[in-house]
Write a structure and sequence with these properties.
The chain has 81 residues and is mainly alpha-helical. Helices cover 86% and strands 0% of the residues. The radius of gyration is 34 Å and the shape is rod-shaped. The termini are far apart. 0% of the residues are buried.
């Protein structure tokens, strides 16, 4: 047994390393795609939550406005709708 690798053995080792790295790369691509999908879903959920909170705040503002309008109309002797 000598202390060097023949070109045939070296090519085999390189090919095995490339295949191993390619497999790792594919796994990382899958992980990235999964994380991208998760981020997209989280963004949508957050947007929906914010929209819901904003809708609630708008409805509260409108209710307060309607109450104030009714009070003002009442003081002015006007019937409000």
């Amino acid at each position: 047994m000598n202390g060097h690798i023949s070109t045939v053995d070296g090519a085999g080792v390189a090919l095995a390393a490339i295949k191993g790295l390619n497999e790792l790369l594919c796994e990382k691509d899958d992980q990235i795609n999964t994380l991208r999908k998760d981020v997209t879903e989280l963004k949508k959920a957050l947007a929906d939550q914010i929209a819901g909170e904003n809708a609630s705040e708008i409805e509260e503002f409108l209710n307060e406005f309607r109450e104030q309008r009714a009070v003002a109309a009442s003081k002015a002797g006007i019937q409000s709708r």
